[in-house]
Design goal:
Elements: E1 3-8, H1 15-28, E2 33-39, H2 53-67, E3 72-76, H3 82-93, E4 97-100, H4 103-111, E5 115-118, H5 129-139, H6 145-152, H7 158-166
Parallel strand pairs: 1-2, 1-4, 2-3, 4-5
Helix pairs in contact: 2-7, 5-6, 6-7
Length: 183
């Protein structure tokens, strides 16, 4: 049985994450196990990490239910110690194959003896978390659900958009000074 692990902050869970989790599910196969490990699980209510662990877990589960993907979600707190990160994370997500599109994470796990399955993301730049959060921040003051759906559909799965709207979870992004400036 293959256990595949997908690691990320998922702030929020976007189409790049969805593609990665689907690839991991395929790699694990029907008899395998899929673990989605939410990093920085203690981080919340800040510009880079607006949503709580529980909220991120709910987003992921809403998407997984809609897509019929069976997975387990675990949270991993930061230890701010890269050389010991993999050992720390492994105590929570267990042993397996890391499925990632993030090269620094891939190298960190490989240095610890892990098998890593690299997945290329065709829209990596457009689907960077900070870009998605900035778009949500912009939309958080529009108060027009259909406009939010239309704009976000290019970067966020529909079940996550609905979760954000139903839980009034976009407005939070308007309350942070992100310091992000174009150019």
């Amino acid at each position: 049985m293959t256990r595949c692990i997908v690691l990320g902050r998922f702030q929020p869970f976007h189409l790049g994450h969805a593609s990665l989790v689907k690839a991991a599910a395929e790699h694990a196969g029907e008899k395998g196990e899929l673990i989605v490990a939410i990093g920085s699980s203690q981080a919340e209510w800040e510009a880079r990490n607006p949503w709580t662990f529980a909220e991120r877990e709910m987003m992921i589960r809403s998407w997984a239910e809609a897509e019929h993907v069976v997975l387990e979600v675990v949270g991993i707190e930061d230890i701010n110690d890269p050389p010991n990160w993999v050992k720390h994370a492994t105590t929570i997500h267990g042993e397996g194959v890391l499925v990632t599109s993030d090269e620094p994470t891939a190298l960190l796990y490989e240095e610890s003896g892990w098998t890593v399955e690299r997945i290329d993301l065709s829209q990596r730049e457009a689907l960077e978390g900070w870009r998605v959060r900035q778009t949500i921040r912009m939309l958080s003051t529009v108060f027009e659900d259909d406009a939010a759906r239309e704009v976000l559909k290019t970067s966020v799965p529909q079940p996550i958009i609905e979760w954000l709207i139903e839980n009034d979870a976009m407005f939070r992004c308007s309350t942070f000074d992100t310091g992000v400036h174009a150019g």
